[in-house]
Amino acid sequence: MELSLIIPCHNEAENIEPFVDLIQACMDSPDAPATLELLFVDDGSTDGTFARVTQMMECPTTKRISIKAIELSRNFGKEAAMLAGLESASGALIGFIDADLQQDPAISFQMFAYLQHHPDTDCVAAVQEERKEGALRRWFKHRFYAAFNAVGDIDLPANASDFRVFRRNVADALMSMPEYFRFSKGLFAWVGFHTHTIPYKPRERHAGSTSWSFRDLVHYAVSGIVSFTTWPLRLVLYLGLLTSIASIIYLIVVLSEYLIVGISVPGYPTLVCLLLLFFGIVMLALGIFGEYLGRIYIEGKRRPVYIARQMRTQDLTQMSCAPADQGAHPSQEDDR
After folding, report:
1. Backbone angles phi, psi at 287, to 5 degrees
2. What's the pTM value of the predicted model, to 2 decimals?
């Protein structure tokens, strides 16, 4: 296969058929690959997404497209689904794209063509020109990228997305890192390689609603920062130094006041405020330490990032070209 497109899916049953139809329409583009593998990864959907994909596999319309479907045993998250796709993709070039039709497959083909004509480039990433979101969510995302680049060990392009196409060497580098807590945007930045960015405007969802709540986005952002920097631990160190210095200064002030003018007021409010401040700092430190320690504990278990329940493949090229007298069956599937 010249190109493998990995499509993570979670409750996208209504979008599968329109997505495949759009892919087939884009295959007439001069930028389209000669052969294309569509690799759907069903991340524990409850609306029959996997069944809808297998139905599409029984209705081939072009001999240039091959469809593969992987069903995970439960919902492991988008990052796990992306890794499952990487480990099963057979294309020389590989790309990620969502199934909700917000990301145009024609842009994937443009990224594919760019890599074909620029052998020194390893990856082409699409960056959103403008986010069609609420002002508050958009503000928080801008602040996240600014904070990540300020404290992280790598630079993350603003408004970067998983919508990209890259070479096999990039995929091999990503798969060489078997960490459980994956943050793909950071992983792409960490492995390096020559990356070219292009702007794109996301479309409206064809059907359904996003499964990413604000709480999920906050958790994802915190996970990304903790995965690629030890800055929160250094923050605790700096807070400890500042509070120690402040405590010493306050001790000097209290002793001076006692020795020079005497202390007539017991200072109960001051004592309470200081206790609350220091206990708050201690609890913050314990929370940060606990986050890192918990990740070490889970990583130490060496559990798999995902578990595949079944995999089905279908070679539409053979199905379209097989002569009728050879007993070609309308569905050639391999269940694993």
Report:
1. -65, -40
2. 0.70
Q: Per DSSP, what are the bridge partners of residue 312?
A: 69
Nearest to 29 by CA among 91, 104, 109: 109
> How far are the Cα atoms of 125, 136, 214, 224, 231 from residue 140, in angstroms, in the given order?
22, 6, 10, 14, 19
CA distance linking residue 92 with residue 258, whole number of Å: 78
Distance of alpha carbon 213 from alpha carbon 129, whole angstroms: 22
At 89-131, the pLDDT tens digits run 888 899 999 888 888 888 889 899 999 888 899 998 888 876 6
Q: By mean pLDDT, which of 41-55, 132-146, 220-234 is the weakest?
A: 132-146
**Cα dist from 7 to 61, 101, 129, whole Å:** 19, 11, 22
Amino acid letter at 145?
Answer: Y
Helix (H) or strand (E) holding 23: helix 13-26
Cβ atoms of residues 123 and 165 within 8 Å: yes
SS3 state of residue 185? helix
pLDDT at 151 over 60: yes
Residue 302's DSSP bridge partners are: none
Query: What tens digit of pLDDT does each residue of 43-63 get?
Result: 888 888 888 888 888 876 567
The one-character DSSP state at 68 is E
3-state class (DSSP) for residue 108: helix
Please give the pLDDT value at position 14: 86
Q: What is the C-alpha to C-alpha distance for residues 86 and 175, in angstroms, rounded to an integer?
A: 7
Query: 113 burial class (0-12, 13-18, 19+ CB within 10 angstroms)?
Result: middle
At 61 the pLDDT is 59
Strands (E), 153-226: 160-167, 195-200
Residue matched to tokens 């405007």: 201
Q: Which residues of 40-73 are buried (b: 16+ CB within 10 A; e: fewer)?
A: bbbbbbeeebbebbbebbeebeeebbbbbbbbbe
